[in-house]
């Protein structure tokens, strides 16, 4: 992968992680106010951004494969969410 393409992929993954973090913060604020539906929506958006970041990160791996350990961990978080 060319360095400029790798750099863009890294920046995009970082951006998606930042967006996920922002949605989690908004979710927490909604929960503090007792707004459970809005909190769930923000949490879903955060998970979407996390998944986009994960996809970007897979492209950065030399083998393009995600470890099974991580996949199981993410499945557990989705189940708990």
TrEMBL record:
Residues 1-43 are annotated as: Disordered. Residues 8-21, 29-43 have a biased composition (Basic and acidic residues). This is Uncharacterized protein. It comes from Methylobacterium bullatum.
């Amino acid at each position: 992968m060319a360095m400029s393409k790798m750099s863009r992929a890294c920046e995009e993954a970082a951006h998606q992680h930042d967006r996920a973090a922002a949605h989690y913060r908004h979710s927490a604020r909604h929960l503090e106010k007792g707004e459970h539906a809005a909190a769930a929506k923000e949490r879903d958006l955060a998970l979407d951004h996390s998944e986009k970041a994960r996809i970007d990160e897979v492209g950065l791996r030399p083998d393009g494969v995600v470890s099974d350990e991580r996949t199981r961990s993410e499945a557990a978080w989705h189940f708990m969410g």
